[in-house]
Amino acid sequence: MRYNFENFREIDRRGFLRQVFAGALVAVSTLFPEKTEAARIFDIKSPKRRTRPIRKSTRFIILHTTEADGSGTVDCIAQSGTASYVVDRTGAIYRIMGKTQVSLGCGRSMWNGLVNLDNHAINIEVVGYHNKYPSGRQMESLKYLVGVLMRTYGISAGKVMPHSQVAYGRPNRWYRRSHRGRKRCGMIFATDPVRRRLGLSDRPRYDPDVRVKRLTVGDEYLSKVLYAKMSKQELAAITSQFSPDSEDEDLAVGTVQKGQTVWEYAGDEYASETTIYLLPDGRIRRGDDLLKEKFDFHNVQPGTRIAVGYTLGGCVTGERTPFSIAGQNWNRPDTLYLTDGKVITGDEINDVKIPAGTFLLFRK
């Protein structure tokens, strides 16, 4: 995951002082581990703690890399609540969200048919890059943190995975089907040398969603890394060069431009019940309904908007509240409210002032 720290210059001063303090404590902990172990986790309360729901379950630990090294990293993550914990370069551990609260790090994700893993996972951000080994202190602290969480929640080593292993992309102009390989975030944590240092004795040996054809492989190189299909030379080459993690290519709602087709946005899912069309005449339709209506997908009017991977919840009314429609997903950033031609995300909507006739789209 990549962050922009340009707006955090003021916070950076506090972050710098906190890192100095944390670094000192980490150094002391190497001399007196039995006395300072409890102090290795620092609590930074994200403002998102006030609104985020409790996880539905805790079945996974997902490891991320920030793809940045700036001093404002921790504060940036805290502001957005995109991780449960952060491990910085000094080895300091920061708790961002409440212990059982949802953190929004996985985004569009799936493992063995289970989607939206943020509802079922603890997200840990490691300050660094997807193809660079973490520092020794980071590895030590991450091993400690992962071990504590595995014991607390009964999570097996095989369910400790990098973000790249569970993230997936929607169909687009390059891939006609939903595909694994949307990003390489945390890729280094799938390699055997790193997993051994973290005390992880097991790892997934194949992609269950690709095996049953829910997804297709979109990044052959990444697949080789994740499932240990590399030579020693290829493994060594992972850290020989740096190529930044790609930005998330997904826009919540794509707009068809003149000369474009629906396949560039929805691929083979163009007629799916989870592909929602916002037509220029104001109608909102599911792809499967348009297929029944013999809609001409080959000649779609420019300006048509398409959202892939969504459930059409319908209109919000006095009797149908956002919570009654989408449950705990009502205020997630990937939940969409459509009103007066505008798209408002769940974390920006004012639930007290939702206009009549507002449509709600959400991901299950």
The largest pleated sheet is described as: 6 strands, mixed
The end-to-end distance, rounded to whole angstroms, is: 22 Å
User: What is the strand arrangement across the widest sheet?
Assistant: 1-4-3-7-2-8
Shape: globular
Low-confidence stretches: 3-13, 25-39, 239-250
Radius of gyration: 22 Å
Topology:
Layout: H1 9-31, H2 33-36, E1 41-43, E2 60-65, H3 73-80, E3 85-87, E4 93-95, E5 110-111, E6 114-115, E7 121-126, H4 136-153, E8 160-162, H5 163-166, E9 168-169, E10 179-180, H6 192-197, H7 208-211, E11 216-217, H8 220-226, H9 232-237, E12 254-255, H10 263-266, E13 275-278, E14 284-286, H11 287-292, E15 305-308, E16 311-315, H12 322-326, E17 336-339, E18 342-345, E19 359-362
Parallel strand pairs: 1-4, 2-7, 2-8, 3-7, 10-11
Antiparallel strand pairs: 3-4, 5-6, 9-10, 12-15, 13-14, 13-15, 16-19, 17-18, 17-19
Could you explain how this protein is built, in words?
The protein is α/β, with parallel strands linked by helices and 364 residues long. The protein has 2 domains: 9-237, Peptidoglycan recognition protein-like (Lysozyme-like), CATH 3.40.80; 254-362, no CATH class. Helices cover 26% and strands 18% of the residues. It is built from 12 helices and 19 strands. The strands form 5 sheets. Strands 1-4-3-7-2-8 form a 6-stranded mixed sheet. A 4-stranded antiparallel sheet has the order 12-15-13-14. Strands 16-19-17-18 form a 4-stranded antiparallel sheet. The longest helix is centred in the first third of the chain and has 23 residues, at 9-31. Residues 3-13, 25-39 and 239-250 have low confidence and may be disordered.
